């Protein structure tokens, strides 16, 4: 549990303890799985980074950021799957244009390419009247007028089919994932393709004033669809931004491409670290803002704020903490390093490398090197 992580923080701050870590297994392979992450010239770059880093858990995955020009050209034929990340669904489809949208449909249904959508990407892949969608997932988004409904760490359960794909999520009925105003999905009256739900969202998110209750709960949370020659996956939530759950993204890429599943290491498969739902009500948002302000306070306040933001599964903690590797306080620098590892921010490997390299205090240097080794172990190596 996360409390153990902060017990370790106290020990390291006081004693400079050393731990041993093991790298992820080296998995030899010949052919990469090329995944093109669709970018709309900077729209929600954090969502693109999160998806990119989640894919690096799998040694076969080769994530690359692509644009509409790539999709329209023959270059896209060198890719195995297109991933539409979180951000804005309409921003993504307007960037694709009508011909680009038609191109993606043909690539999936006629040429067997895989496609995966996360949050806004689920809107893109849906079959939703009045919305510029690709009509591929066999699911319809409803209550779009209340899209700004709230966010937080939400509960979900697996269907029987979902349990087959995610055997790591055994032993209990309720699991947790980040959610940020994802679509409310239901079956359309005349689905073009037959979708199956792999999991069900259990949380009732309506923390924004004016949004209806009992809308998000008991709805599909992860869907999988056979669409002609290709396969389609949608995530309503954000496992790619949920420590301990990010591996679910490469797992479903493998499903979409009919590739055999592989096991991921215990450094990234950590579903049991969550114990309860955390929805961002007005009170909790205010509390979060107070902790953000504390990041400019005394070293003691900064360490406490880092701790609380991680414990609260704060959406933006991932952006706030990295800069504290360059704080004047040794305690703050170590706390930031440990939080980066807990948050699985593998995009901060370079920051942590430089922090360890330039650290003058030898005891802290060794502690930073330990955290760096842990962070690097979350990225699969390949031959």
From TrEMBL:
It comes from the Bacteria. Residues 1-22 form the signal peptide. InterPro entries: ARM-like, ARM-type_fold, Class_I_gatase-like. This is Biofilm PGA synthesis protein PgaB. PROSITE patterns: GATASE_TYPE_1 (PS51273), PROKAR_LIPOPROTEIN (PS51257). It comes from Carboxylicivirga sediminis. Keywords: Signal. Coiled coil: none annotated.
């Amino acid at each position: 549990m996360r409390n153990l992580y902060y017990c370790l923080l106290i020990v390291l701050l006081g004693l400079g303890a050393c731990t041993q870590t093991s790298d992820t297994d080296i998995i030899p392979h010949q052919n990469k799985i090329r995944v093109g992450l669709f970018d709309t010239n900077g729209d929600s770059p954090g969502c693109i980074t999160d998806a990119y880093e989640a894919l690096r858990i799998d040694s076969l995955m080769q994530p690359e950021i692509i644009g509409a020009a790539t999709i329209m050209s023959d270059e896209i034929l060198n890719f195995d799957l297109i991933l539409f990340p979180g951000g804005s669904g309409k921003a993504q489809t307007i960037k694709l244009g009508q011909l680009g949208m038609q191109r993606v449909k043909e690539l999936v249904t006629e040429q067997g390419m895989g496609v995966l959508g996360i949050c806004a990407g689920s809107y893109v892949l849906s079959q939703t009247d009045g919305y510029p969608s690709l009509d591929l997932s066999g699911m319809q988004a409803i209550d779009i007028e209340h899209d700004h409904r709230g966010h937080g760490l939400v509960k979900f359960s697996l269907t029987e089919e979902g349990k087959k794909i995610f055997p790591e999520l055994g032993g209990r009925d309720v699991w947790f994932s980040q959610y940020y105003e994802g679509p409310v999905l239901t079956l359309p009256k005349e689905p073009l393709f037959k979708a199956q739900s792999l999991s069900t969202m259990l949380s009732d998110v309506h923390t924004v004033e004016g949004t209806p209750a009992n809308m998000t709960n008991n709805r599909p949370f992860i869907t999988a669809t056979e669409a002609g020659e290709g396969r389609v996956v949608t995530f309503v939530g954000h496992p790619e931004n949920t420590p301990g759950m990010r591996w679910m993204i490469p797992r479903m890429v493998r499903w979409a491409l009919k590739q055999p599943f592989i096991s991921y290491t215990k450094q990234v498969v950590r579903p049991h670290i969550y114990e309860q739902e955390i929805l961002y009500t007005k009170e909790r948002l205010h509390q979060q803002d107070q902790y953000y302000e504390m990041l400019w306070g005394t070293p003691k306040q900064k360490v406490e704020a880092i701790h609380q933001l991680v414990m609260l599964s704060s959406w933006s903690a991932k952006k706030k903490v990295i800069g504290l590797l360059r704080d004047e306080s040794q305690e703050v620098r170590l706390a930031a390093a440990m939080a980066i590892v807990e948050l699985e921010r593998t995009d901060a490997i370079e920051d942590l490398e430089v922090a360890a390299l330039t650290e003058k205090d030898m005891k802290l240097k060794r502690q930073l090197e330990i955290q760096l080794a842990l962070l690097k172990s979350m990225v699969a190596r390949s031959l």
